[in-house]
Structures are given as structure tokens and as C-alpha cells.
Amino acid sequence: MTWRKRIFDLFFASLLVVILGPVIVFLVAYIWIKQGRPLFYVAERMKTPDEPFNLLKFRTMTVVEEDRGVSGADKAGRVTPLGARLRAKRLDEFPQLWNILRGDLSFVGPRPPLREYVERFPDVYAEVLKSRPGVTGLATIRFHKHEDRLLSRCADAQETDDVYCRVCVPRKARLDLIYQRNQSTCYDFDLVFQTIGNLFRRR
User: Which of 50-59, 75-84, 191-200 has the highest mean pLDDT?
Assistant: First the structure.
């Protein structure tokens, strides 16, 4: 990560913590009242091919003892009514401001992968994770809706994993590498504004 990108992240993450602080406090209280604990979903993700970190989100699903792999139709029944509303506007991702301040994430970059996929596709992620993972990015903007549609059609965890590995991993990697080759502060601004625009269009 360049020093310019790190300053960009620190400045805007700090600004958003101040601006969104009351909203985040309200969401914490509301989730506590409506769903109870735990308030947060904490999951291991990979910052580099061999460096993990704990990704933070507001909890949007019922808790189970073992939870592995990406989310498809096999997990849809676990999404709570409140969780569905949070996900629709990506409000569940507000706690990732803490990950940005810590340096685990950037605002823009590839979405941080699960360890199991990094281990299964080492050559792919050796290239993709040369960029600091991000909250949003080119692959998120261009492929996220299509990925959701593909995985929502899967009947079980095995099919979800197969579709994700066969279709989603290579397509997202291709987009992530396009971003990597063209990364700049202006491009990051453009992708952030595209993400915000997509959220408003979801209404």
C-alpha cells in the first residue's frame, strides 16, 4: 500500500467515524434490542496470502457452531429480517471502519478472501493480494450482484462452493487485477462514488 493510499484511508475513515458515529451507536442499540448478542460478526479473512485478520461486521445471521465457505442459498434461511435490511444498504459493513483504521483494509481493493480459498488458489491470490483488500472495489461493483444471483440458485453448500470456485474466483480475480494495474487516488474516488451511487439506486 502506498503512503498516499494510506493517508486517503486514514483521513476518510476518521471523518466517517465522526460523521456516522451517532448512526453506528443507534445501530448497535437497535441490533441489541431486536436480535440480542452477539452484535458483531467476526470472521477470519486474509490480508496477504499468509497474514490473517479479523473482519468486523454487524451480525446479520443466526449463530451456528460451524460456519464455513461463502454464503449461498444454503445459508439464506439464517439471514434475520433485520440482517436483510442491513445488507440491502451495506450498513452491516460500518464496523469495517475499524479495520481500515487498523490497516487491515483499504476503502478500495479486492474483497478479503477466506483462508480456505487462498490455500486452494495460491497462484491467484498471490497476485490479487498484492493490493490491500478493500471494503469496495471494481469486482464488488461489477460482479457482486451477478455473484449473488449465481450463489442464490445453489441447492446446497457443495454446489455453492463449486460455483464460487469455478466461476466467481477467476472472474473476480480478473477484475481485481485490472484495478491493481490502474490504481490511483482518482480511480479510488471514482469507485467509492460508484459504490455510493449503487446504494442509492437500490431504493
Answer: 50-59
